[in-house]
UniProtKB/TrEMBL annotation, chain A:
This is CxxC motif-containing protein. InterPro entries: CPE0013-like_sf (IPR036593), DUF1667 (IPR012460).
From TrEMBL, chain B:
Coiled coil: none annotated. SUPFAM superfamilies: FAD/NAD(P)-binding domain (SSF51905). Keywords: Oxidoreductase. This is Thioredoxin reductase. Residues 4-299 form the FAD/NAD(P)-binding domain.
From TrEMBL, chain C:
CDD domains: GlpA-like_Fer2_BFD-like. Residues 41-389 form the FAD dependent oxidoreductase domain. Residues 435-489 form the BFD-like [2Fe-2S]-binding domain. This is Glycerol-3-phosphate dehydrogenase. It holds the Pfam family DAO.
């Protein structure tokens, strides 16, 4: 039995998830909580937001994010790969700065438009 | 002197939304004055996601949320944005004194003004943390600027004081950039941050949260070296003998935000002692006719989506005021906070100017489960709203029909938390 | 505007006049030779208010004077952390050096601040009596003050006191009014004095901790680790470290310093008008009480307590701050400590002598002391400096006044300008149109100007002490990173090398993505 605080809404239900019983969730206030609880234990994923180096702009770092969820356990490996990227201004919001992060079907995209100076 | 219909002071999310709404409601000459080199405000450094779930129905990062509003402003309005410009004073007759390098010292006149200056962070001095005064003590927002915009690391071994959202977000951010975050220390027995941030910023990275604890000593000659954390009793006083000493080089403070109202004070506007923000009417008008306010300058929000909603209202009101339409005379009802409620916004309602429904935003003083929010007047309950869960960190909203005003006595309504 | 170059010499910064706006470095070898060959008439150890005052006085004459300071800036010790009061002079016992220098210094400081454009306000002080007994103490203080030559002292009754200060404890029995007391920016005075001295040809050697003082053939050799300075006279103005410096010359110091630590609250400007005079409590057998005063920058200062201190340790404590808070509200009950913007502690250089120690060492001829300069040291400093010059002359120093001595200084403060002045200065220099510190309304123009003055700052706090940016309610949260960038740009240094204050107080530890 694992315990988790649900983050689907601000109520913060205390979920109990039974790994030995098909990840049955109790303590949830709604169905979304059950889905969250199960996924969090079987396949936890996150969107990673960070920055990359940028040249020729008024700021030194360009904010970026993964365009979809990546497995939680690869967050630091993903950081290592993203940290090696340097982009040149100008960049538009939504531009891909790194394709297939860690070989996943996930791209890293710019979250801000920056002009060149 | 240059004249405008509406001058918006501050180009963050509040100012952008206000300018867009002002334009959509008929204001023509609109100027946003922004002190930074670009619009977007603090969202530019809030690179994490979680913004926009209410307004855009999707999850965006701070720069994306700001970027969309900047695009809307550019594409759909003729509003002018003056960057790198600081407003020094608001004089009588809605004269705005501002300065920048290009235009020098300016006197601008507006028919209506929207104040959208946001807020600033409380500092070490404000909470009087004792100890040495070495380098390595930052407010979380300042650290966020260094790390996310300028690309500098502010430390390697970090302790965070305060579990507000910025502190939690920075715990994760510093960890991802290679620092060791030793813990997050919170004076209260509960966190002021969103659950989601506790889980995804602390738990994901095994960063301990010390509830009912505070920093009682800082040691370090040049840079922070050691920090002492003590447990506190129910009166928030440190308990001797509970000290934990952390070897760290950095402290990030996330100990509260204060509405940035220096300009408002100089303009003589009424400030609410509970929010440290401006006192506003139902249409976000301040105590001075034609001066409106929205966003964190009124009260500190936890969701930018609510800032946007409030600012659209303020922008619209400013546009209507600038048209100089005749104002409807009205009674004024004061909104008082009863037990459990720390403040309400708006603080004053002009009954005749409320459209069908009145909206009240408020915060509570503790964590409550299964309670009613009661609106009463003269000891009589006018309306009750059931709430499963209330927490000080989460702003609440109630909406009630205008007809309720008929039952109000002594021109006051009180909002309270009542246990079932 | 005077442009000056910065020369780095032997790890220290040596400043002299130049006509080039950019910072430049001179090779170490040239500077080393130059330094060793230079023979000074007077070497001052310590860049606090006393050292800076003396350097200024000496720079009026055709002689070679150098001030040696261990930190990266002047005014970085006790001078930056005290009550910032110009005392009237009723406190010191009759006939003491403290009494003489206090009353003289009070007169001189006003004039100096005017000439050198240093914030100063003569707001007067009140010592308040909260019991009948204390009224007796006030009488004693008045008599003592009259004898010391303090002008216009006046005893006030209950009503008169409350008329002057309506926010005092309504139980106040009476007060001693001293109209000549004032408030000042102590660090700005020290910086102004040092800057002006440098402008007049005196030298300041920063980042130089004196390790040895030897006398050979009537000449002092002052070593600071990697370099040696020769000087005919040495003046010890090393503050809380004066006994250590003295022991270098005297072998066994003729006095000891036991620093006493005082903790303070600095409150937001919204509290700055709660009183309009310096409010002292009546001294009792329990202590001197704490003062409440507006600062010259518009804030409210509350403190200090007095605890045993240690050189180099200026941390605050929960108990100390608690004490200051509790005691202060006895005289001014309405102070809102919610509006605290900063706490700090400073050290007083108390010696084992009752009086200031000012004069030539009895053990080592040519070695002079300005030591044990506790309160009212700030007020007394200009008078001590003037007297020290006379003492040096008596000891053989020739004083030939300079034909051309710069005795004025102007600092442009955008905040205090009217509309026309603001328009004009931005036209002349657009950097004055860029506000860097929003709390205190400080422009980039002022910061750049400070960075090119004769004694330029090298740290964020160094800029703060000169321009006021970061002194406001957000305490540099907003302007700190921007000031750091401007310093890096103007001095041609990487951001990582710009400290918060003293060398080694690194703000950032590197870049991300490395």
């Amino acid at each position: 039995m694992k315990e988790l605080i649900c983050i689907v809404c601000p109520k913060g239900c205390h979920l109990k998830i039974d790994e030995e019983n098909d990840y049955k969730v109790t303590g949830n206030g709604c169905e979304r909580g059950a889905v969250y609880g199960c996924k969090e234990l079987t396949n936890p994923t996150r969107v990673l937001t960070t920055t990359v180096k940028v040249e020729g702009a008024a700021i030194a770092r360009l904010p970026v994010k993964t365009d979809g969820d990546i497995p939680k356990q690869v967050l630091f490996r993903a950081m290592d790969e993203i940290n090696r990227v340097t982009v040149k201004a100008p960049v538009k919001r939504g531009n891909i700065v790194l394709k297939n992060l860690l070989g996943l079907p996930i791209n890293v995209i710019a979250t801000k438009t920056i002009e060149s100076v | 002197m240059k004249n405008y219909d509406v001058i918006v002071i501050g180009g963050g999310p509040a100012g952008l939304a206000a300018a867009i709404a002002a334009y959509e409601n008929g204001a023509k000459d609109i100027l946003i004055i922004e002190r930074n080199h670009e619009a977007g405000g603090i969202l530019n450094q809030c690179i994490h996601n979680g913004f926009g779930l209410h307004y855009f129905k999707e999850e965006l990062t701070g720069p994306e949320y700001a970027g969309r509003f900047i695009d809307m402003l550019r594409e759909n309005t003729k509003a002018e944005v003056m960057t790198n410009t600081m407003v020094l004073e608001i004089g009588p007759d809605k004269t705005v004194y501002a300065v920048n390098s290009e235009n020098g010292y300016m006197q601008l006149r507006a028919k209506a003004i929207v104040l959208a200056m946001g807020c600033r962070e409380r500092t070490r001095g404000a909470i009087a943390i004792p100890g040495d005064r070495p380098a390595g003590i930052f407010t979380a927002g300042t650290a966020q600027l260094y790390v996310n915009i300028h690309g500098y690391m502010v430390g390697r071994r970090v302790l965070i004081l305060g579990s507000g959202d910025i502190g939690l977000i920075m715990a994760r951010r510093m960890t991802l950039e290679g620092a060791k975050v030793l813990g997050c220390v919170e004076l209260m027995p509960y966190s002021n941050g969103l659950n989601r941030n506790i889980v995804q910023c602390l738990n994901d990275y095994d960063i301990p949260l010390y509830l009912s604890h505070t920093i009682t000593d800082i040691q370090g000659d040049k840079r922070v070296e050691k920090v002492t954390v003590s447990k506190v009793d129910e009166n928030r006083k440190p308990i001797k003998g509970t000290e934990i000493v952390f070897d760290c080089d950095t402290i990030l403070l996330s100990v509260g935000l204060i509405p940035e109202n220096e300009l408002s004070r100089s303009a003589g506007l009424t400030i609410d002692k509970r929010t440290n923000g401006l006192v506003v009417f139902e249409n976000m008008e301040t105590s001075a006719p034609g001066i409106f306010a929205c966003g964190n300058v009124v009260h500190v929000h936890d969701l930018v989506d609510f800032v946007t909603a409030e600012s659209l209202k303020a922008g619209k009101s400013a546009a209507l005021y600038a048209k100089q339409e005749k104002e409807v005379p009205s009674d004024i009802i004061e909104v008082a906070n009863g037990p459990g409620v720390t403040y309400t916004v708006p603080q004053r309602l002009r009954t005749e100017r409320v459209e069908k429904f009145a909206e009240l935003f408020f915060r509570v003083n503790n964590v409550y489960k299964g309670v009613n929010i009661v609106i009463s007047s003269g000891g009589e309950t006018l309306a009750a709203f059931k709430r499963e869960h209330l927490a000080p960190g989460e702003m609440e909203k109630i909406v009630f029909p205008k007809q309720l005003f008929d039952k109000v006595k002594d021109k006051t309504v009180t909002v309270s938390v009542v246990k079932e | 505007m005077m442009w000056l170059a910065v020369r780095q010499a032997l790890g220290a910064w040596l400043f002299s006049r130049h006509n080039n706006g950019k910072a430049q470095r001179i090779s170490l070898s040239t500077s080393r030779k130059e330094m060793i060959q230079r023979m000074y008439d007077v070497a001052i150890v310590g860049g606090g208010i006393c050292g800076c005052s003396l350097l200024y006085e000496l720079s009026k004459y055709n002689l070679k004077a150098v001030l040696i300071e261990k930190e990266n800036d002047v005014a970085i010790g006790t001078t930056k952390a005290n009550s910032a009061i110009v005392h009237a002079g009723y406190d010191p016992e009759n006939g003491t050096a403290m009494a003489k220098y206090n009353v003289e210094g009070n007169r001189m400081i006003k004039q100096l601040c005017e000439q050198l454009d240093v914030p100063y306000k003569q707001i007067g002080s009140l010592v308040v009596a909260l019991s009948e007994d204390q009224l007796e103490t006030l009488k004693v203080l008045k008599q003592r003050g009259d004898k010391n030559g303090v002008p216009d002292l006046k005893l006030l009754n209950h009503e008169e006191t409350l008329v002057l200060e309506p926010n005092l404890n309504p139980e106040v029995k009476g007060a001693l009014l001293a109209p000549t007391a004032g408030i000042i920016s102590p660090w700005e005075l020290a910086i102004a004095l040092a800057e002006t001295a440098v402008k007049n040809g005196a030298e300041v050697l920063l980042r130089s901790e004196v390790a040895e003082i030897q006398k050979e053939n009537g000449v002092f050799h002052v070593s600071t680790g990697d370099k040696t300075i020769q000087s005919r006279f040495v003046v010890n103005a090393a503050g809380v470290l004066a006994d250590k410096v003295s022991s270098l010359a005297e072998k066994v110091s003729s006095f000891t310093i036991s620093p006493s630590k005082g903790e303070y609250y600095l409150l937001d400007k919204n509290q700055g008008n709660i009183v309009s005079h310096v409010i002292f409590q009546c001294p009792t057998e329990l202590g001197k009480g704490v003062l409440v005063s507006p600062t010259v920058h518009g804030n409210l200062i509350v403190g200090p307590n007095a605890e045993k201190g240690e050189a180099g340790h200026t941390g605050t404590t929960a108990d100390g701050l608690d004490y200051v808070r509790k005691l202060s509200v006895l005289s001014v009950p309405g102070i809102s400590f919610r509006d605290s913007i900063r706490n700090f502690a400073g050290l007083r250089a108390n010696s084992n002598q009752d009086d200031f120690i000012v004069g030539e060492s009895k053990i080592q001829k040519g070695f002079f002391q300005i030591a044990g300069i506790k309160s009212p040291g700030l007020t007394a400093a200009p008078a001590i400096a003037a007297d020290m010059v006379r003492m040096l002359e008596d000891a053989g120093l020739e004083l030939n006044p300079k034909d051309y001595f710069v005795n004025t200084r102007k600092v442009y403060r955008f905040k205090h300008m009217d509309a026309a002045e603001r328009e004009q200065i931005i036209v002349q220099n657009p950097l004055y149109g860029r506000i860097v510190c929003r709390c205190e309304t400080v422009t980039e123009g002022e910061i750049v100007d400070a960075l090119h003055r004769p004694l330029p700052p090298v740290s964020v706090d160094g800029v703060k002490r000169r321009c006021g940016c970061g002194m406001g309610r957000c305490q540099g949260g907003f302007c700190g990173p921007r000031v750091q960038e401007i310093i890096a740009r103007e001095l041609g240094l990487p951001m990582e090398q710009i400290p918060l204050d003293r060398d080694g107080m690194n703000i950032i530890t590197g870049t991300t993505k490395q």
